[in-house]
Amino acid sequence: MPELRKDPVLGRWIIIAEQRGKRPTDFIVEETTTSGGFCPLCPGNERTTPPEVLAYGRNGDQGSDMPGWQVRVVPNKYPALVIEGELDKQADGLYDKMNGIGAHEVVIEHPDHQVVFSALPPEEMVLVFRAYRDRIIDLERDSRFRYVLVFKNYGRAAGASLEHSHSQLVALPILPRKIDSELHGAISYFNYKERCVYCDIVRQEMRQGLRVVCENDDFLVITPFAPRTPFEMWILPKKHSSAYHQQSDQQLKLLTGVFSECLRRLDACIPGVPYNFVLHTQPLRSQPLEHYHWHFEIVPKLTSIAGFEWGSGFYINPMSPEEAATFLREAL
Amino acid sequence: MPELRKDPVLGRWIIIAEQRGKRPTDFIVEETTTSGGFCPLCPGNERTTPPEVLAYGRNGDQGSDMPGWQVRVVPNKYPALVIEGELDKQADGLYDKMNGIGAHEVVIEHPDHQVVFSALPPEEMVLVFRAYRDRIIDLERDSRFRYVLVFKNYGRAAGASLEHSHSQLVALPILPRKIDSELHGAISYFNYKERCVYCDIVRQEMRQGLRVVCENDDFLVITPFAPRTPFEMWILPKKHSSAYHQQSDQQLKLLTGVFSECLRRLDACIPGVPYNFVLHTQPLRSQPLEHYHWHFEIVPKLTSIAGFEWGSGFYINPMSPEEAATFLREAL
Question: Which Enzyme Commission number(s) are listed (chains A, B) (predicted)?
Answer without folding.
Answer: 2.7.7.12
